[in-house]
Structure formats: C-alpha cells, structure tokens
C-alpha cells in the first residue's frame, strides 16, 4: 500500500493551527497542510469583526513565546492588531505554502491496516499519517430558537458574523445577550442607533478593564531590550496565574474581587433598580468574568433600555416578552455565545472499529488524545480551557505534546500511537476529583458543563501544571504499533 499523502494534516488556522504549523516546521516536518474552512486564515480574529472587538488578556501574554511582539499599541489589543499578528507569524515562519483556504474539514476515518487517516474535505479526500485538530472552541455560533424569528422582516445576525452592510444609524436595534462580545460592541453602537434594547438573561460579573495605550517610546524599549520584554510578559503571567486558586482552591477569597465588581457597578450606575438588575446572584467565576469600563455607562443612555423579561415571540418588526410588552425592532443582533460542546463532536470522526469521537463522553487524555483514535491530536480539547489566564500558553503546551508524539512516530518508524484506555480513565478520574468544589460547579448555568452537568471544559489548576504534564510524549501510556 502507498504511503499516505501527508505526514500531518492540521485542522484550523487560528492560534492553535498556526502554532502547530510552526512547531512542525521547527521539528523538520514539512509534509503537512493546514485546512481552513474560511476564505482567509486567522481563526477568531479573522471571523470576529464586530465594533470594539478586542482581547481580554494582556496582549504581551496573548502571543506565542516563540514569536514575541513588542509593537502592541494597547495593553489589550484590538482585533486588527491581533489579525496582523497572525499575518506576521505566517510570514515569518513560512506557513503560507501549507495553507489550504476555503477548505472545510468534513470528517475522517482511520484505516486500521494502514495506520493512517482518510480525511474528507470540501475539496476532496486526503490521506495523512496524523491529524492535529485545532478548530477553535469559539467557532460555532449559538443561535436561540426564538418563536417567530423566521418571520422577522429586518436584518439579523450573530455578533461573530457581523454584517457590516447593515447601517445601524437611526435604527431600532435589539441585542440579545450580554456576554463577552456584547459588552464590547454595545458601547460602540449605542451612540449611533435610535433605540437600543439589551435583552439580558443573566447579569454578568464585570470588573474594571485596566487598558491603556502603549506609547512609541515604551514599544521601542521593549523591542530593543529583550530581558525587559520577557520580564514584562512574566509579570503579566504571574498576575493572571495568581487568580487560579480563587476559582479552585479558595473560593471564599472571591469576596474581594466581587466587592471590586460591585463597587465598579455602583460607581457607574446610579439608578438603584438598574443596579439591582445588573447584580449577579451567583458566585464570581461560575461564568466567565468580564472586564469593561464603558458598558455600564452605555446602559444609562436615554436611548438604551435593559430588558430582563424573557422573549416570548418575535414578530415582523417587534419582539414580545413574557411580561406582555412589545418592543419595536429593525435589527436583531445575537450576542448569544458559542456551542462549545458541539465543536468537539460536530464533525464525524471515526476511529478504530468505526467508533465516533466524543459520541459517548467529552473526555480525552491530557486534552490531546482519545482511546480508539490513533495518531489524532486535539488542541484545546476537553478540560484544557481557562477562566483565569491566556489560552495561548495552553495551546503551546498541547501542540508541543502532539508534535513530540509525531516525532516519536517518525523516529521509531511506527504506524500509530494510541492512548491506553486505563491511562485516559485515570487522567479523567483525577480531573473530576480536582474539579469538585470548584466555583464552576457552584450552581449557575454555564458552557463549562455538558448535558449531564459534568465539567468538560475547564483545566482545574495552574497552567504551568498542564505544561509540566505535557512536557514530553509519554509513550509508556500508549499502545505503539
């Protein structure tokens, strides 16, 4: 039988896919392609173009350790700078020839005899020895099934697919949701529209956003003095890493940041009724903690109304709520988040004996490999998400682990490596024990929990603990063929 066409196929061209491409090239592996379903690369930062789109982790931390950028103009960079950063990574590391844009990943089947994957794409079938899957956790928009939405006569779109052809000036706009994206774009569109109704299901914990400009002199100094740049990155890392114990080990200490958030709310919202509507009733950290300085003031504008009643019906030009009110709307913008759980099993991936990936449970070994699926590596897989620090750190750790496994396959001339079921079980049993008592399971509804109430998303600990766990490919926990 002929050898597979590629040594590695990488799925996705966001930070995970680009990191995989760089590390593969640095390992001397050039026979790979990066599949991207969209017409251009960049993942989240190419897709999300809504007004005010920006990162919520310091820019110097939200970048690869092997590609430091001293030219960030803000402490929390905007979408344009982040997309430009991905452009520089592709250019500086020669990834352009490996990109296949406009090529969607449609599924895969493992060939047990040959020890390779048959990958189905929108451009045809490909074969590869290994797969690195990095589609991004926030890549599938969640759209609520609202009665009557099909009959709405105006424009409607999800914030992650912002329709820039829709002119919002002078329009009556309904924003459904008040999460991480909404609190960024609402202050930008509020001055433009005639009326803005913000439909809130659950209030969010919102902290002050310590953003600032990074001036040209400071940028030049960081560019010239590498130790200073490293120290600045390390300081940011330690600052954000210090938040992990609050969510996992000592949730009682959350009283202090909750006080800061309440004080932030009280300073910006004078109306006691509005302040009460915006005060969360759940423990901080159970949902994603947000940061904003201009969201609360936007809600106090005379043309902005916070609506806390649930939506009962969407009409041709209005939205009716359970309380009996009907509010006119020309445009509906959905800020309803993402189907993170479905991203993991949205595509039909079949391993040994036709087993479908994540069909029964959202569990993996070190978030990277799954028993029954040889040579298949997931980046930002189950229980590798964070609520306190930069996902780029976790992405690099997972990619290094996957590439080390692929190097082992090459060096030992193996057909496949597959994690043992007992190793996967022991890993997940340990995760479950560590997640008990964490703030994520304290009672609120969040996307960290699956349909059975199990936390499939969050890494229960420090990021450096995950980096240590994935520091090398532990072949002793794998079946080598």
Automatic annotation (TrEMBL):
InterPro entries listed in its UniProt record: FAD-bind_Monooxygenase_sf, FAD/NAD-bd_sf
Spans through the membrane: none
Protein name: NAD(P)-binding protein
Species whose genome carries this gene: Massilia mucilaginosa
Lineage: Bacteria, Pseudomonadati, Pseudomonadota, Betaproteobacteria, Burkholderiales
């Amino acid at each position: 039988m002929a050898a597979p066409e590629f040594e590695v196929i990488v799925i996705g061209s966001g930070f995970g896919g680009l990191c995989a491409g760089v590390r593969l090239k640095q390992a001397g592996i050039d026979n790979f392609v990066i599949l991207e379903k969209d017409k251009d690369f960049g993942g989240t930062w190419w897709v999300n173009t809504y007004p005010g789109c920006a990162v919520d982790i310091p820019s110097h931390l939200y970048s690869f350790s092997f590609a430091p950028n001293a030219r960030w103009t803000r402490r929390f960079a905007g979408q344009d700078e982040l997309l430009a950063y991905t452009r520089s990574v592709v250019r500086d590391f020669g990834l352009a020839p490996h990109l296949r844009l406009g090529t969607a990943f449609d599924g895969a089947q493992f060939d047990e005899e040959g020890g390779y994957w048959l990958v189905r794409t929108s451009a045809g079938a490909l074969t590869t020895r290994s797969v690195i899957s990095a589609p991004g956790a926030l890549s599938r928009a969640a759209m609520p099934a609202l009665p009557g939405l099909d009959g709405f006569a105006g424009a409607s779109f999800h914030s992650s697919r912002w329709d820039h052809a829709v002119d919002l000036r002078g329009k009556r706009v309904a924003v459904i949701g008040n999460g991480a994206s909404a609190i960024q774009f609402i202050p930008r569109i509020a001055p433009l529209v005639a009326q803005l109704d913000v439909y809130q299901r659950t209030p969010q914990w919102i902290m002050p956003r310590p953003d600032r400009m990074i001036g040209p002199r400071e940028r030049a100094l960081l560019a010239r003095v590498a130790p200073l740049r490293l120290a600045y990155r390390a300081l940011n890392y330690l600052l954000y890493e210090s938040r992990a114990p609050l969510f996992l080990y000592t949730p009682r200490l959350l009283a202090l940041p909750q006080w800061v958030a309440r004080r932030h709310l009280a300073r910006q919202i004078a109306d006691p009724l509005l302040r009460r509507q915006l005060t969360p009733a759940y423990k901080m950290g159970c949902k994603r903690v947000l940061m904003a300085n201009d969201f609360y003031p936007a809600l106090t504008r005379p043309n902005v109304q916070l609506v806390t009643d649930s939506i009962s019906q969407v009409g041709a030009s209005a939205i009716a709520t359970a309380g009996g009110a009907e509010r006119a709307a020309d445009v509906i913008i959905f800020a309803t988040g993402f189907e993170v759980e479905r991203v993991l099993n949205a595509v039909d991936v079949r391993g040994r004996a036709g087993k479908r990936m994540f069909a029964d449970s959202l569990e993996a070994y070190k978030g990277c490999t799954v028993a029954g699926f040889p040579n298949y590596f997931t980046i930002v897989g189950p229980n590798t998400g964070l609520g306190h620090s930069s996902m780029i750190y976790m992405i690099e750790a997972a990619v290094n682990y996957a590439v080390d496994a692929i190097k082992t396959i090459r060096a030992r001339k193996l057909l496949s490596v597959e994690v043992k079921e007992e190793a996967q079980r022991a890993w997940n049993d340990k995760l479950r024990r560590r997640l008990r008592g964490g703030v994520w399971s304290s009672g609120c509804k969040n996307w960290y929990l699956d349909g059975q109430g199990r936390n499939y998303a969050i890494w229960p600990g420090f990021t450096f603990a995950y980096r240590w766990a994935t520091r090398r490919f532990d072949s002793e926990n794998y079946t080598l063929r």
